[in-house]
Each structure stands twice: as C-alpha cells, then as structure tokens.
C-alpha cells in the first residue's frame, strides 16, 4: 500500500540504528483476542482505506475528549455516524479484547457501557483491524473420517432448496478451523503489511519540524500491546516497552525520550520477520518429522486418543478436538491457560467446568456443551444441532443452525452470519463451584439478557469470501425463545464425588416467571410419577428390570444428545 503516511515512516531519515536484533528468547506474537473476538460485521466500520478515514476521525475524537483522551458512546456514534446501540456494542466488544484489565472500560459494570469511555488510541487500533480478513477455513485432511461422524443430511436439509446460492454454498461446506500456526502467520502478515499505517495513528509530529517527522512516546508505544506481545506472558505481566531496546532501560522517574516512528517500524518489522521464519521452520519440521502429540491437526481416527491438547504455552488456548460419541469432563486443573477451543466434536456431551476468559466452539454437531463461567467472550461458529449451556459476560453466535442456547449472559447475545432456527433460553444448570467461578471472572447472576438477541449482518465482511452485491445489507436471522414447556433443568453428574465441596446448590440465575411455572409443573408431574413408581405393586426383580430400563434410556439420551421432557436419572432413583 503506497500510502503517503506509510512512505513518511518507512523512508524517514531519522531511523538510525534501530538496536533491533530480535530477542532470541522472546518471540513476537500477535494477540489473538482482537482478531478472534473483536471483529464486528457492521459495514460502517469496515473502511476501504482505514488510515485516510481514521486520521480525521482521530482528530474529531481527540477534540471531543478534552484532556482525557477518552470518548464515550455518544461521541463515538456522532464521529462514526453509527447508531447509539452500535456505538455501545463497539465499546463493549473493545472492552472484551483490551490488553489491559486495569482500563476503566474493562471494569465497567455491564449496564454502564453506554456511559463508559474508551481510550482514543485503543479505539483507533480496534477500528483499524476491522479491515482484517480471516484466513479461509480449510478442508480436513481426513475427509472420509469427517463424513463418518458429521451426517450429510438433517431434518433441515429439505429447506435448503429454497435458499439463495450463497446460503447453499455455505450450508453444504463442512468447515474446519485453520491451525493455530497458520492463523498466527496470517495475523503477523497482516500486521507486517499495515504496520506503518498503524504506527501513524499512534505517532505525533515533532514540534517545529515538518509533519513527516513522526515520533512515538513510550505511552503511545504501549498501546501496540493491543495487537502484539512478546513471549508467553501477556501485556498485564510484562509491559511491551520492556522488550524494546529504545525504552527498556528508561528511568521510571523520568519521561522517556520519544523515538522516531521509523525506528520503531524497522525494529518491529525485524521481529515480525523472525516470528514468521520461526513459524515456517516449525511447519517444515512438522511436515518432515514424525507427528507429535502437540500437532494441532490430528486425524479424526486419532481424535479420541488426543481429545484434549494443551497449548505449548500459557499464552494459547487448550483444545478439545474430535470428540465423537462419548462424554468428556474437564475442570480448571485439567486446562492450561484461561481459554478453550472446542473443535469438530460430534454426538457427544462435553463439560468444561472452569473459570475462563475466552471460549470458542467451532464445527460441532449433535453435541451438548456446558461451559462453566467465561469472563470475556464466548464464540459459537459453524455448528449444527448443538446445545450450549454457559454463564458468560457476552456471547457471539455465527453461522449456526438448529441450535439451542441456555444462557446466563450479562450482555445481549450477538447473532451474526447465516443462521437458521436458533433458539435461546434461560440458564438451566449448576455445579458446586459455579458461583465461585462466576465471581472469579466477573459474571453477574443478577443480570441475564438471554432473551435480547442482537442480529447484525448475514454476511461477514471479514471472511475473505466474495459476496453478491447488496447481500451485505441483509440482516442475520435472529433467535426465538424456547417454548417454556420444553424447558428443563440440565443435571451435571457428580463425576468426581467432590460436588459437596462447593457453595453453589442451585441455579444462580433467577428464572423468568413463565419458565419457573413450567419448571414447577414438570417437577409436580415428576413427583407424581415418582410416587406411582414407589407405590406400584412390583416384585423386587420387576423393580430391578424397571431401574435397568431407565438407566438404558438415560444412556441413550446422553449418546444421542436429545433432551427429553422426563429426566430419566431422576426416575431411576425412584425404583
């Protein structure tokens, strides 16, 4: 991109010696969170030329923020010409991916986002990356095995003939998330290409010199921590400036001398090049050497033996991948880091009973997934006939069909992309440490916006696909409320015999009256059935036969992932 601003940075005569030999111990990495959870399909936020658009917006935002360099949703709505609701959504999404948990926006209460404010420079970086295009999903290398566990037909397929060609293409494609290495390389390449423009949004001209002499203060440099980090420790533990030779040894009691933007640019480019080379070398070793347990692309045939793979560092997520026709339970002690990705699981029941920052569910079908407490964001994408139960600050649902979401969420569920027959319902389960985990990550049981889904565009402008003209303006199909008569509690078994150690004894989210009444009717019916079973004049051997039959039905219920109106586990305890 031959932008005049980019030229002014890359060709500045003040570059000098960048002191920029990349640290061989701490490699540069992109922060995945903004790219995975921070992209919004709002057309007015996707700029053809981000720099030329954002430079005047920067001046407008700074002029409206007086001396604080922070802007609220009203100023943002006016500057970007977006609705107040979308301005609040921008601030809330930014809060979920910010690199500093000490920022006031992050600590804002869920119902105070409209009166909260964001740092102008963090906001500019957030708006800039709305131009990012995701890496296209790949085809799994073991397509035959995938076809075996992911059915090619469903009850919904008869409807597909009425869909547009775009929807047909999307619905018939079985997508698999790119490997972490491929995604990281793609994100690094994006930063490499756009780095000069990004720096120009943070830099400022030197007083008394021409406008092309741009410098970065240490404070402005720290904002790059929104997009990059060094080593395995996040920006909360190590400031980005401590890895930069031009700031590392600055006197904490004295303001650091601003550094030419060209010097920062050259130093970062060298570090990005080293990181890309490292990824390439690892990929080459993987192709030429024996497969290892840490490979992120295992065959479906081997999925059961490598069902959960911890990321090689605390920086990355734990993976639960390829579970088929089985149950899996993971607690906090089983996970590395504070993020989880559940990928390509089918016909299973998965329990993740842990406090998390982020959770992603991708490419799953006919599966029930319980995700403990998530303090930043949950994303559910390309799933079919999946039930998700989670307590979270926020959730985004993209390109799913025939799924049901039992939610305890502090912000509106975000519905984006090509969705069909989605249903939402109030949260319906608990485990003994749930409230402890919710308090740890900041999820409030007093606020549940499960029934306020916000539908955005049907087309994701970040997916690297070409779209017919006008399709980008079509709104996504929203979710409907689950019929209260179909609402039941979901029982989490006491897998390890330690449920009594926690303080949670019931669902912490209050149920709406209509669902509470339906639940009470179900409980009354169950009580009557229980009494009938107890009073039934059955011989002991007949009672044992009935108990065995109920256990068989319960096992089949778990296997099929079908939630019946009568919880067989309850009945089985009656005979």
TrEMBL record:
Its main location: cytoplasm. It is found in: Cytoplasm, Cytoskeleton, Microtubule organizing center, Centrosome; Cytoplasm, Cytoskeleton, Spindle pole. Residues 8-24 have a biased composition (Low complexity). Signal peptide: none annotated. Pfam families: TBCC. GO terms for cellular component: spindle pole. The keyword Cytoplasm applies. Residues 305-443 form the C-CAP/cofactor C-like domain. Residues 1-30 are annotated as: Disordered. Keywords: Cytoplasm, Cytoskeleton. Gene3D superfamilies: 2.160.20.70. Belongs to the TBCC family. This is TBCC domain-containing protein 1. It comes from Juglans regia. The gene is LOC108981747.
